[in-house]
Amino acid sequence: MKGRFTRKTEKINEQQRQLYTLEVYIIGGPMTEAFLRRNKVICRTIEIKSSQTLEELHEAIFDAFDRDDEHMYEFHFGKGPHDRKGDRYVLPMAMRNPFGWGRKAKGDVTRTTIGSLGLKVDQSFGYWFDFGDDWYHQINVVAIADKIPAGKYPRVIKRTGKSPPQYVGF
Fold first, then answer.
1. Is the full-model pTM beyond 0.85?
2. Secondary structure of residue 150 in the 3-state scheme
């Protein structure tokens, strides 16, 4: 019994020491044609520790795209970035009320760590922000490292394209 507990603890500790590099693309949202012509690709590359939560990833994305007005959001894991049959990770208030597509959520973003998701390099998943304006993002796992350099995480390490205004016309 004692040996099994030790092995499980070692596995969890290994996962907590990994660093994920994620590319976050905006793939849909209320942007003008003029903005899209000037910004063909809108992406932020974010490094995040496996011990950090989906909520912390949301906060990093929120800041990386220069947003200033909080809204509901959720993450999607399935066959594609916004698979309607895939798993949903949501805010605690949505755990009891299935807002998104009428399905029960798989987990709470405040408690789900990046390392617990079993992500693999080249996997993609979705992030849906603001259920009224519908900002859709595709997140690609580009690297998973076993060593974490000193520094504050999550952090943006690359920006491609300008951040679109959160609200068109403002």
1. yes
2. coil
